[in-house]
Amino acid sequence: LREAAKEREGARSRSLAGLCFLSAEPTHSELDENRECGRCRIDWGRSGPVCGHCVLEDTLEAHELSLVSFRRAKRIEEFSALATLAPGGDPLLNAHSSRAGGGVQIGDNAGATRNNQGTAFMDDVPATQLLRLLLRCVTQHARTGRPLGPLALLAAEGAADLLLLEAARRELRWARAQWMAHADLLSRLDELNSATLALRLATSAELSAGLSADEARYIVIPSELPAKRAEHAAEREDAERELEAAVGQLRYLKTVAAEQTADT
Question: Which residues pair with 124 in a beta bridge?
Answer without folding.
Answer: 68
